[in-house]
């Protein structure tokens, strides 16, 4: 008898979906990121995710607890990941019957002991709003990335901390924006087109910026699939064209000692981490 069948011969009911909540006093980005990092270790489990941000009063916390407990059943325990920093609000949230994972308070005491300083419990500081300089750096980096997206502008290109180079649809834009938003880096991205492969040189606008360049690649199958969603049936999306461009791009990177990664199976977060480590870029945001 199959392990998926009951002893009486009836098929088992499918595994219940586990409700997951991400709670925060701010945007909830940190709670989602850290919580999803843990959930990724359980690929066989189905989750139904919901984020509840900007919990700033005890009254709101009580309402949230009601919502959390309503998700509980006799057979399913909901998971709660929280980065709420206010101690009073956090204590109210912990009244829930759900499994409560405190991503903030559970480690705060340790940090306070090491630093010999009491924490301010300032939720805004979690996302850099409390530091005007860091916030301003991120906003300027985002503006730079938008202006220099896909080679749209060559103005002040030398001010870039990094220039992403790749054939079209290899992930340049989302990676540029992520590095700007999360790390305050001024990132330009430049598309390699067929004409750029006529010689072994870097495209003219990049010839003095080789030390700032980082290349992205993909697999021909993945690139063809992504391009096909944009221009189905076109030469641009054909497997032959994608293979050609990727081969030539890889040769260009190798000839000019430009580091590169294959983006086909990597998330934006993973790509950003590898790029920063490989290029030894600082976190400015």
TrEMBL record:
It comes from Terrabacter carboxydivorans. Keywords: Kinase, Membrane, Nucleotide-binding, Pyruvate, Serine/threonine-protein kinase, Transferase, Transmembrane, Transmembrane helix. The keyword Membrane applies. The chain crosses the membrane at residues 20-40. Bifunctional serine/threonine kinase and phosphorylase involved in the regulation of the phosphoenolpyruvate synthase (PEPS) by catalyzing its phosphorylation/dephosphorylation. ADP binds at residues 166-173. Its EC number is 2.7.11.33, 2.7.4.28. HAMAP family: PSRP. Pfam families: Kinase-PPPase (PF03618). This is Putative phosphoenolpyruvate synthase regulatory protein. It catalyses: [pyruvate, water dikinase] + ADP = [pyruvate, water dikinase]-phosphate + AMP + H(+); [pyruvate, water dikinase]-phosphate + phosphate + H(+) = [pyruvate, water dikinase] + diphosphate. Belongs to the pyruvate, phosphate/water dikinase regulatory protein family. PSRP subfamily. InterPro entries: Kinase-pyrophosphorylase (IPR005177), PSRP (IPR026530).
């Amino acid at each position: 008898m199959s392990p998926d069948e009951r002893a009486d011969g009836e098929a088992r009911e499918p595994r219940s979906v586990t409700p997951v909540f991400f709670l925060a006093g701010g945007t909830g980005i940190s709670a989602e990121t850290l919580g999803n990092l843990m959930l990724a270790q359980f690929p066989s489990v189905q989750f139904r995710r919901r984020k509840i941000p900007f919990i700033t009063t005890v009254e709101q916390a009580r309402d949230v607890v009601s919502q959390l407990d309503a998700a509980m059943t006799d057979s399913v325990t909901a998971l709660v990941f929280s980065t709420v920093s206010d101690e009073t609000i956090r204590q109210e949230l912990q009244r829930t019957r759900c499994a409560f994972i405190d991503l903030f308070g559970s480690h705060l005491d340790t940090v306070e002991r090491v630093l010999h300083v009491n924490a301010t419990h300032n939720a805004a500081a979690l996302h850099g709003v409390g530091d005007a300089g860091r916030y301003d750096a991120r906003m300027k980096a985002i503006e730079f990335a938008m202006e220099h997206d896909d080679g749209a502008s060559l103005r002040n290109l030398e001010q870039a901390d990094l220039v992403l180079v790749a054939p079209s649809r290899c992930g340049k834009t989302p990676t540029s924006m992520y590095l700007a938003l999360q790390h305050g880096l001024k990132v330009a991205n430049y598309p390699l087109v067929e004409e750029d492969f006529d010689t072994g040189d870097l495209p003219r606008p990049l010839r003095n910026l080789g030390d700032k360049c980082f290349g992205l690649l993909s697999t021909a199958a993945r690139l063809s699939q992504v391009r096909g969603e944009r221009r189905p049936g076109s030469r641009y999306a054909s497997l032959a064209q994608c293979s050609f461009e990727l081969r030539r791009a890889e040769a260009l990177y190798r000839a000019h000692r430009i580091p590169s990664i294959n983006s086909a199976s990597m998330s934006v977060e993973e790509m950003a981490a590898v790029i920063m480590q490989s290029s030894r870029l600082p976190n400015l945001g």
